[in-house]
Structure formats: structure tokens, C-alpha cells
Amino acid sequence: MNKFSSKLNLLNKKIGSFVSYFSILLILIVCFDVLMRYFFHTTSASIAELEWHLFACIFLLNAGNTLRQDKHVRVDAFYSKLSHRSKVYINTLGFLFFLTPFCLLIIDASIPYIINSYKITEHSTDPSGLPYRFIIKATIPISMVLLLLQGIGNTVEGLYSLKTTN
Asked: Where are its TM segments located (predicted)?
């Protein structure tokens, strides 16, 4: 079971490493956009949309990696004082009753949204905007699958650690 958890950790780590390069690309695009806007008084809807798409990819596709590193937002006032066993139980219950239903709901709701976007070959409403909106929309369920898999990995790892400490 720990091997399974390690593979899920590695998957999200590699995706997180790859997506981290989007930050550099985003910085370069924003600098280019600012330069064009302030020095040449021109801008493009496609550049602005690309900035938002990259930001969405960075945020969404790194969700699983953020969970892997335990860097997500948590009210730590009580949690930090708990024993390892209590933390594992809280994390397991949180995974089962909050993270899993949330991820499944988002996956279920987003699939028809993407299919419809693909069928109509949705593009930006701005004439100079980006085409193929279904591509950016597809990051929504992909990120939720990665987050759910990482939740499974963390839960398996936590329960395994309880088993080995007894």
C-alpha cells in the first residue's frame, strides 16, 4: 500500500514541477503585456486571456501537489496540538466527508461543461481572443482527479503509519 501512495506522491510531484515552469512563462507574458501597453499603447485580448489561463493552470493543476506537501490552508490552532493518531483520523474523515464529495461533484459538473464547449468549438467572445476554450476547461476535472488521487494517497499513507506504529 505504501508503494501505491508513493506513486501518487510522485505523480503530483512531477506535475507540480512541470506546472511550476508556467509561473516563469506567466511572468514573461505579463512583462510583455505591460511593456506593450505602456510603451506602445497596444494590448491584445489573447495575451490577457493567456495570462488568466496560465494562472488557472498553475492554481488548479498544483492543487494535488499542494496537498502532497501539506501546504494547503488549514486552521491550525487546534490541529497542531493533536497527536499523530488524531491528525490521521481528522485527515481521513476530512478526505471521506469533504474532499471526496467536493472533487466528485466538481468532476461530475464540469464534464458536460467541457463536452458542450468542445461540441460548439467554443472560443473567446473577443474577436482577438483565444480559441478552443474546452482545453482550459478540461483542467478543472483533471485537477480534481489529481487532488482526489493525492487525498487517497495521503489517507493510505496516514492509515499505514498508524498500522506500523502499533
From this structure: 21-40, 88-114, 134-153
- What's the one-letter identity of residue 1? M
- State the residue range of the domain holding 61: 2-165
Number of domains in the chain: 1
CA–CA dist 102, 108 (Å, integer): 10
pTM (2 d.p.):
0.91
Is residue 1's pLDDT more than 70? no
Q: Are 56 and 130 within 8 A, CB to CB?
A: no
User: If you average pLDDT over residues 18-45, what whole number do you get?
Assistant: 96
CA distances from 92 to 58, 130, 154 (A): 26, 41, 8
Task: Report the Cα 95 to chain-centroid distance in Å.
Answer: 16
- In sign, the C-alpha dihedral spanning 49, 140, 5, 79 is positive
pLDDT of 166 > 70? The answer is: no
Burial bucket for residue 73 (CB in 10 Å: 0-12, 13-18, 19+): exposed
